[in-house]
Amino acid sequence: MPKVLLPIGDASEVLDTMYPIFRLPEAGFEVTVAGREARHYHLVIHEIPPGWEVTRESPGYHLEATIRFRDVRPEEYAGLFLTGGRAPEYLRYDEDLLRLTRSFFAAEKPVAAICHGIEILTAAGCIEGRRVTTVPKCKLDAEQGGATFVDEPAVVDGNLVTARTWHDNAALFRPFIRMLETHVSGLV
For the chain, does the N or the C end have fewer beta carbons within 10 angstroms? Predict the structure, then answer.
């Protein structure tokens, strides 16, 4: 079964993270969860309650990363999925993750990013000249990375598909799975 890499950290968003863990195997792809260390991570629930202008963060599930970023061999993976939540704010400083991210783009493998996952793409220098979407409060991150922000449920630009939030999972996964299937069929 072809594999997709899913990097996480403490404060990765529950729905951004758990949806691909269940959806990708339904489409025939194994998901490998990676972290700075192979350990359990604490996921969070992000929502903007009625009457609030900012996101409230609540504790969510726990999820185990089975491999460290530095031990990942990108040639073993068909694609990369960058989840959201607050974790990317911290993960964008991890040189091993940035190296991995760049390698997926260099190999033109499918990459998906949702919500704050754009922060990793910007830090890795992978979105210059591209059209992307993200949660509106990360519009500046996308533009600082040299991308053009558009406020749409999902945006495909070459090997990259981006989405705003978990509300857009269906719009994100239709093209991402097609990209993965096309990539894998080209390897056979």
Answer: C
